[in-house]
Design a protein that fits this description.
CATH topology: OB fold (Dihydrolipoamide Acetyltransferase, E2P)
Strand order of the largest sheet: 1-3-6-8-7
Number of strands: 8
Structural class: mainly beta
Distance between the termini: 17 Å
Shape: globular
Order of helices and strands: EEEEEEHEE
Length: 138
């Protein structure tokens, strides 16, 4: 059995168009920001809370697909892993960032690539839970 797990699954909207770059050896890299919202109860009503913003990095062919088909406002499912890295800025200060390294991406907007209007074309596309093995001791 695995002793650790690093898996992220998000459904949200892009805050800006993906930025596509290429490494020195020609490998494509896409960077984009993605917002997810929580539903919170305020008084007697359920409302969307403030968004959480996530940095997403895609590599190789997935990066090219993101650059070609995604744009600001696109509704997407992203699956990947968390990665934290550090560096020194120009002033010598230590900086950190946490990113989702995308392994898979599914476009959730209707065909034609245009983001849906609020409430239009939305469906519950939450991935099913992982299968439970029969030899679970409870």
């Amino acid at each position: 059995m695995a002793k650790s797990l690093n898996k992220v699954m998000l459904i949200g909207r892009l805050g800006a168009d993906p930025e596509i770059r290429y490494t020195a050896d020609g490998t494509a890299v896409a960077n984009f920001r993605m917002a997810t919202n929580r539903v919170v109860k305020r008084g007697d009503q359920w409302e969307e809370g403030d968004p959480d913003w996530h940095r997403v990095v895609a590599w190789r062919r997935l990066a090219e697909v993101c650059g070609e088909y995604l744009s600001k406002g696109s509704n997407v499912y992203v699956e990947g892993r968390l990665s934290t890295r550090s560096w020194e800025d120009r002033d010598g200060n230590k900086r950190w960032t946490t990113e989702i390294i995308a392994r898979d991406m599914i476009m959730l907007d209707p065909k034609g690539g245009k983001p849906a209007a609020a409430g239009e074309g939305e469906a519950d596309l939450t991935p099913p839970p992982p299968p439970i093995e029969d030899d679970v001791p409870f």
